[in-house]
Specification:
Layout lengths: L5 E2 L5 E2 L3 E5 L9 H5 L5 E6 L5 E2 L8 E6 L10 H5 L5 E4 L1 H6 L1
The chain binds iron/sulfur cluster (SF4) (2 copies).
Length: 100
């Protein structure tokens, strides 16, 4: 894992914030985060009456939630957090991710 030191085009220091978790109790399945992520990190899943994750097209899905399908592909742009109005997402710095 890199140490998190990055720079914008003009040389300003910038620290990525990587997706770490999505709280399925807070997520309303709006899909906004999925639309802004171009790294194929996120995936919509269904939730059945027992709060188990199932395929989104399963007839037993009572609601939808966003899940993290490919955490390692996240570039830490933090765009998903900016569009989530539910406070469902947790992001971490590179140092925090290494410690997990
Ligand atoms: S931080 Fe950026 S790359 Fe990572 S999941 Fe969110 S939108 Fe995708
Ligand atoms: S933007 Fe937030 S509430 Fe909407 S699907 Fe993503 S995590 Fe869930």
């Amino acid at each position: 894992m890199p140490d998190g030191t990055n720079f914008t085009r003009d040389g300003t220091p910038w620290e990525p914030l990587y997706i770490e978790a999505i709280d399925m109790e807070k997520c309303i399945g709006c899909g906004r985060c999925f639309k802004v992520c171009d790294r194929n990190v996120l995936a919509m899943m269904g939730v059945n009456e027992d709060d188990e994750l199932i395929e989104p097209d399963d007839d037993e899905a009572e609601r939808m939630v966003m899940t993290i399908a490919n955490k390692g592909a996240c570039i830490g742009c933090n765009a998903c957090a900016r569009v989530c109005g539910s406070g469902a997402m947790t992001h971490v710095t590179a140092a925090q991710a290494t410690a997990l």
